[in-house]
Every structure is written in C-alpha cells, then in structure tokens.
Amino acid sequence: MPSARGRRTVRLAAATLVSALAAAGALTGVGTAAAADGGPQAQGGATATMGGLKTYGEAVIHEDTGDQQVAAGLFEMSVEGGGMLQTYCVDLHNPTQRDAKYQETPWESTSLGANKNAGRIRWILQNSYPQVNDLATLAERAGAHGLTEQDAAAGTQVAIWRYSDGADVDAVDPQAEKLADYLEKSARGMAEPPASLTLDPPAVSGRPGAPLGPVTVHTNARAVTVIPPSDAAMSGVRIVDKAGKAVTSAKNGSRLYFDVPEDADDGSAALTVQASTTVPVGRAFASESRSQIQILAGSSESTVSATASATWAEKGAIPALSAHENCAQGSVDLTAANTGDKPFTFELMGAEHTIPAGASRTVSIPLQEDQAYDFTITGPGGFEQRFTGVLDCKTQGSAVDLKTQTLSEPSPASVGGTAGTTDLAATGGSSITPLIAGVAIALVVIGGGALVLLRKKETRPES
C-alpha cells in the first residue's frame, strides 16, 4: 500500500474565497452555492441527503504527528422521491457537511477516477457488511471470533480507507481489525458499476420538423417513466420513438427523440425520465458543498431520474453542449456539437473556438484541485448555457485536520475529518484558514492563465 505520510496537504478553499468574474467563458471562484446553476456533475441517478453516521466503531489513524482516533462506519442517506442509501467514506480527511445534498456520480468525476485501487474498493463492498449480513459467516472468513454490526462496519471502513486514501489506519477492536486485514488482502479489482439511470447524450440539437436525437436510456430499472417538456402542450413538442409514436415509458436501451413542430420558433426543451430501482453497489456520490465523497454499500428501492435537453433552429449554427469533470486529467471537459449549417463560434477563457457545421469537439479546461469554475457559453438566437462547480478530485488532508477530532459522541454526519467537531463540520474551517485563503487566491490567478487544450474530435453527431 502507498504510504499515507507526505500526502497530507492543506485543502484549498478557492470555491469560497474568490469573487465571481461574471464574464462569459471566464473561470471564477463563485462559491459552492452556485454549483446548482448548471453544474456538469448532475448526470442522472439518485439524489440524496446525508442523514449521518449510523453504524460505527473506532479506528486509529497513524500520522507523523501522532495517532488520532476517529469514528469509522456506515452512513445513511435519504433519497429524494423515496428510498434509503448506505454508504462508506472514500475521502478520509475532508469534512462531512450535515444535511449535504449528494448526487450519484461517475468515478471519473471523483478521486476514484484516478485511483488504480478503486476496483478493489468495490470488491470490499460486495464482500463485506452490509452486502454480507451474515456476521457469523463474515467472521469465519476473516478468522475473527465473532463480529457485531459495529465491528463489521468499522472493519469495512478501515479496509476502504487503506485503498481510497492510502491511509495508515487500524480498527481499534481486534475482531474489526482482523476483518479489515482480510478484506485488504483479499480484494481484487472490479469494474465500475453502471449508473442507475442516465441519458446519453445529455444534449441534442437540430432543425424543427425532424426528430432530434436519439437520446438513449441506460438503466438497471425494469422501466422508466418519460416526462415530456413542461410546456409541451403549448409548444407542441413531443417525446417519440424512432417510428414517431409518442412514448410515456421506456426501458434500458430505448432511444428517445424530441419531435418539434416544423413551424416552431427557435428554442429549446428538456425531457426527464424517472424510475424506482436499487442503485448498484459501488456507485460514487459527490456533494456540491464538497462534503466528503461517499461510495454506495447498499440501497433500498429508490427514486432515480435523468434529464436531457434539445435545442433547435431553422438555420445557422445549432449547438448542443454538455460537460463533465475529468479527475484523471484535472479538467472540466466541454463537449460542443453543432448540427447546424454554419460554424458555431464561442469564446472561453479569452480564446475563440469554432465548431464546424456537422462536427463535435471537446475542449478541456485545466483546473487546480479545489478550484471553482463558472463559465457561460453563448450562441445565436439568444442561446446561453452555464456550467459551474468545483473540481474536487483528491483525497487530501493535514495533521491539523486530525487534531480537531474526538472519538466521543461523534457528530451524526461525521467521520474521518470531522468526527465530533461541530465547528469544522459546519464551516469546513480551521486555524489555518488565513493560509488557505492566500494559497487559494494565488491558485485562481494561476488557473486563470491556464491553457485550454482542444482535442479535435470531428465526429458527426447522430441525427
């Protein structure tokens, strides 16, 4: 295992310390509250609220500065629309925000995307508590003399931290420690589980009078409900299948189209699909408030949803934009497709980019860790789309974080970086905040001058 020593650096707070530039195409530090205004991380699936640490034991983290005790175990989150999730932390030194909103997220948009051991973490989840809830069998496999639910949760969390954070950490209870050792040594790589529900691509475009799409449904649910645009009755826009028949339900692999009347004014619309299903074990959950990343250990039947948009125009450039955070590259990748008959030109970070008619390209926007971004792309006919968020890709911390922890009476929504520390959990702050502020401001200045890399992918979008 890689050593945890030397990896503890100050977590940068650019998201809350830098004023917005408020210019189209500019990167800014707008703060995490703005992340809900079109952030690329909401790619479909379950949305949940942190309920707290429910089943836990004790662990000891060994640092150069000394040993620190923390709570280690299983969280619970309530799903929007109905359902419950059980999760473990994969971001030891980052605080957990009470009542934080979480969104099901691809591994590539979290620290798991650049972690070669992410597949081993999924193996641990599949082969330990609560997926294996026969504690006698689990204890026998681990060579332990009995396990309580608290021991099983603590041992599982400790094993995960060894792979997610490279942490030098042990469970306090001897039987929980035996379980942690067994899981760590036995873990094998597994692939990332598929999303519970996504739509691909999330944005399409074209001319009115012809079907716009397809948008393909990817889900583990038996069926999904298709919700048409909110103004469908007025605009006449329908959601149809390939044959042009209106659809109200779909399944995995279904291809949906926006049927826009030929005489429709230039505009846009969105469709939503919704289902009830169990979210696959191993799916990542990230929060716009930068509360610590979670990974799914178990799910009840839960509500999941996804949204896709369409833009149409009679002539000229017709853009379709989507974006996602790419932790492996340390960037936000903007994909711009143009199904129009003229080039689509936009400005981003002071550079002009042109997408030829009928082509698609990806623009990579390099960011520093914890750097906030806020950029707006404008186009013909009043087209405007905004993307905001914070790049949160690394599991980092410092000895100062750990010194704020106490084991007794842990906060219901705290583990690792915030156990029993109300102030830190509420604010994410500490005695080193002035230093963080200075570093954050410097980073944004550096980030503002970063080069935008254009990966030329002149592939024609599906029509």
What's the short story on this structure?
The chain is 17% helix and 34% strand. By secondary structure, it is α+β, with helices and mostly antiparallel strands. It has a 6-stranded antiparallel barrel with strand order 1-2-3-15-14-4. A 5-stranded mixed beta sheet has the order 7-16-13-9-11, with no helix packed on it. A 4-stranded antiparallel beta sheet has the order 6-8-12-10, with no helix packed on it.
Structure, explained:
The chain is of the alpha+beta class and 463 residues long. Helices cover 17% and strands 34% of the residues. The protein has 9 helices and 24 strands. The protein has helices at residues 14-17, 118-126, 135-142, 149-164, 174-186, 232-235, 399-403, 422-427, 433-448, and strands at 47-63, 66-79, 84-89, 101-105, 169-171, 197-200, 203-206, 212-219, 224-227, 238-240, 249-250, 255-259, 267-277, 284-287, 294-299, 302-312, 319-326, 331-338, 344-348, 351-355, 359-366, 372-378, 384-390, 453-455. It has a 6-stranded antiparallel β-barrel. α4 (149-164) packs across α5. Residues 1-41 and 398-463 have low confidence and may be disordered.
